[in-house]
Amino acid sequence: MKNIFVIAEVGSNWRTLVDCLNSITLAKNCGADAVKFQLFSHRELYGYDGEVPFSLPREWIPKLVEKAKNCGIEFMCTAFSLDGYMFLNQYVQKHKVASSNMLHIPILQYLKTVGKPVILSTGGGWSLKDVSLALATLADSPPVFLLHCVAAYPANRTKLDRIFVLQEKFPKCIIGYSDHSTNYTDIPIYAKSLGAELIEKHVNFVNCKETPDSPHSLSTEQFQVMVRLLKEGGLDIENDAEEDDMKLRHLVRLMATEDIASGSKLVYGHNYGIFRSKKDAPEAMHAMQWDKVDGQVVSRNVAKGTPIFAALLDV
Description:
CATH class of the largest domain: Alpha Beta
Helix content: 25-40%
Number of helices: 11
Oligomer: single chain
């Protein structure tokens, strides 16, 4: 893989079908390559009937697949039973196996027969010997993605050096990182720098507060920043809501220091300069633009203490 592949894991972050559909749209808008859900029932998880919250109805799957197709994003879904994978096979291009099912041999044996790539998470204390056993079961299947995964929710330690271990021990596999931390900048970027070619991250696109996945999920805005950094490269410094006062008021920008009449020239150090604003001034021009502004004629009156902005000038 030349470009990093980013999966938006919706998980349990939904309440209605509309939430799921909207999550697909937002995942695409954020630049994700795939959007993933989970398919399970109480019987599939525990072996007997019962109630389990956030159990995705199977009848929703064709609707979600159609929505993803229309949005131009890959639909993915993790199942938790052999029957679930058999049901999903008609709908997915790749199969994802959760860490908890990494050694569910009947599931792996079935996936070996369907000819589709398999993404295998390795969290939860599995040993390298266990991973080897899983791969031996999938021996002749198409490409296998091995995801380093810390199966703590949320994850406070990431142990990214395990990416190196997986690369060394399993050179035929594509190595990725399944993340349950709420860090959306340096950790995923570092994982990429270590060679991770796939990043999976939980996202709460519809702001569901009381879901099992909400404590370890990113917001839409955080996920969008992460995808941009992963796709474009580098690590930027991002402002968040707590810094809005600093960003809109206290950072220096171009400000009028005297009343400036319409038709007058701007003269740096005489009627304008680089200063703070007493009020929020998101439209004010950047301090670095002072040399482009100097000598320009303003098209309207500018009051002392107000920002110089582009609409006043021909710059």
